[in-house]
Amino acid sequence: MTVTDQTARAAESALEMARVDSHLHPEGSFDVDAHPVPTGREEIWRFTPLKRLHGLHADATLAGDAVSATWSAPEGVRVATVGGEEARGLRGASGLVPNTLVSARVLAELTETLLVDVPAEAELTEPVMVEVSGTDAATTSGSHVVLRFGHHSRAVVVLNHTGSASLAQVVEVVVGDGAQVSVVSLQDWADDAVHLTHQQASVGRDASYKHVAVTFGGDVVRMDANVTYAGPGGEAELLGLYFADEGQHLEHRLFADHTAPRTKSNVVYKGALQGAKARTVWVGNVLIRKIAEGIESYEENRNLVLTDGCQADSVPNLEIETGEIEGAGHASTVGRFDDLQLFYLRSRGISESEARRLVIFGFFNDLIRKVGVPALEDQLMSTVESELERNVLKGYAPVSTGPVA
C-alpha cells in the first residue's frame, strides 16, 4: 500500500468516524417509538426552552381544534383538506423521514393533510394565500401541509400564521423538474403562541426553489427549514428575517443537504433583538455529500443587537465529503449599531431615534425586497416600523457593549 493509499484510507476512516457523531447524518424513522423525548442535552435541542413548549415536543395531544386554515388560490390550483388513503400517501412526499419525535408524531397521528397542488407548466400571476389562524394557546394542535409544484410550473405560496396557538407542524414541499417556485412562511403570531415547524423541500432537476421565513410574533417559535435535491442542477435560496422582543425565543435551523451534483444553495438570514431576555438562535447546516460534485454553497447570518439583555446565537456548520466543488463558505456576525453610521446621520441634523430607524431599515431592506411579493414586502416594512416603535424609537436604553463577530 502506497503512502497516498494510506492517507486516503485514513481520511476515509476519519470521515466515517465523524459521520457517526454528526447530527448532519440523522437516522430517521416513521416509527414514533424510535424517537425518545428530547431532554435538552441533544445537539439539535440544546438551545430550545423545552419547558415553554406546552408538551409539543413530548406527549401533548395534536388533536386540538384551536387552529384552522383558509385560503385563496388562482384558477386551476387545487387547495383542499384531504384524508384517508390520499392523506396517507402524502406522508413523506418530500422524502422526509422524521428525525424528531415531533415530526414523527405529526405524520403518524394526524388523519388529514392540507394539500396545495399546482399543476405542471402552470404560470401563476397571483400567489396562493393560506391563512393559518389560532384561537387558543392553551390547546395543542398538529398540522401537516403538502405543497406540490408540477414540472416547469411558476408559483408563489404564502403561509401566514396569526393568532394564539400551540402548533406542531410539518410542511412538505415537492418542486418538480424545471419549476421555479417560492414559499413564504410568515410567523406573525400573538405573544403567547408556541410554534414548532419542520419545513422540508425536495428540489427537482434544474428547478429553482426560494424559501422565505419571516418571524416576528410568538412566545417560542422554532423552525427547521431543510432542502434536498432530487436531481442535478437544482438551486435553493433560503432567506430569513426575524425580530425578537422582550422574552421571545425565535429559533431557525437550516439544512441544505446536497444530495445531487451541480446543485446550489444560498442562505441569507438577518435578525434584530431588543428587550430583556430576547433570544434568537440561528443554526445553518450544509452537508455536501460525496456524490455532490460541482456544487456551490454559501450561508450568511447577521444579527443586530439593539438593547442590553439580549442574546443571539449564530452557529454555521459545513461538512464536506468531496473536494470536487465549485465553492462553499459561510459568514456569521452578532453586533450592535454601527457608531460611524449613526455619527454620519446625526452630523447631518438627523435625530438619534430617526438615525437608528434608518440604520435598521437599511439592515433589513435589501432582504425584504427579495421576498418577491410586493404587497407582502410593504407589509413587512410596516411590521418592522411597529417593532421599532415598541422600544428603540421610544427611548429604550440602547445596547452599550461592543460588537461580537
UniProtKB/TrEMBL annotation:
One Pfam family recorded for the sequence: SUFBD_core
Domain of life: Bacteria
Domain SUF system FeS cluster assembly SufBD core intervals: 137-363
NCBIfam families named in the record: sufD (TIGR01981)
Family under the similarity heading: Belongs to the iron-sulfur cluster assembly SufBD family.
Protein name according to UniProt: Fe-S cluster assembly protein SufD
Native source species: Nocardioides lentus
Gene field: sufD
